[in-house]
Amino acid sequence: MIEKITRVISTDDVLRISELHKKNYPDGHLTKYFSKSFLSVYYSYFLHRGCTLVVDRNLDGEIDGFVLAGKNLADLIREFKKDFKLLIIKESLLNIRQALQSFLLKFKSLLTSSKSIDEAEFLILSIVSDDNTKGVGSRVISALISESAGQDLGLYVKVSNIKAINFYLRHGFSIKNYISGQFYMELSGIV
Ligand SMILES: CC(C)(COP(=O)(O)OP(=O)(O)OC[C@H]1O[C@@H](n2cnc3c(N)ncnc32)[C@H](O)[C@@H]1OP(=O)(O)O)[C@@H](O)C(=O)NCCC(=O)NCCS
What we know:
By secondary structure, the protein is α+β, with helices and mostly antiparallel strands. It contains seven helices and seven strands, in the order E-H-H-E-E-H-H-H-E-H-E-H-E-E. About 45% of the residues lie in helices and about 25% in strands. A seven-stranded mixed β-sheet has the order 1-2-3-4-5-7-6, sandwiched between helices. The chain is globular, with a radius of gyration of 16 Å. Coenzyme A binds near residues 24 and 138.
């Protein structure tokens, strides 16, 4: 069952989406190594700042997948990193290899690129579906696309995340740009 949630979400639901993120996000993504409690802080932060959450629940009422998107996301991510700098460093140090890789990638992008991407106002922060349930990703993204009708919808995806790239292509997104190991993909809101 598809449900759109803005702002209000129970603690159990926040914990469930954090659990899905931790379990299913691909290796190599820094947030995969965040603890479940820190991911709860992360999701609560964006939900309390007007982002849109679409969830898919199974017959038991448990969330099987979700997508979180919002406006001015780049600013919100910057603010989150500033507000939680120490916690992010602490969490990253628990996976030093991954933290080092992210740092090197960031450093390389500072040296090699001054390019800034012309991105859509409405961006997807994350989308996750439980591995065991088929079609959940399609259901939540279709609901988000209807919700954001008329607006361009953008997202960043690691170039190595072939499954997600194919998924976005299937849903009408196209690759618009490349920056620091990630594709910027967009779906035009013009119908
Ligand atoms: C990217 C992601 C959200 C896509 O979600 P998804 O649920 O796997 O995508 P779909 O809805 O297309 O479903 C996938 C499969 O179910 C099948 N399917 C879709 N609807 C179905 C239905 N109603 N009944 C049966 N099967 C169905 C699809 O054909 C596809 O099959 P395949 O994997 O054999 O090709 C998911 O792979 C994921 O959570 N990845 C980890 C997190 C991640 O990388 N997020 C993106 C970060 S940028």
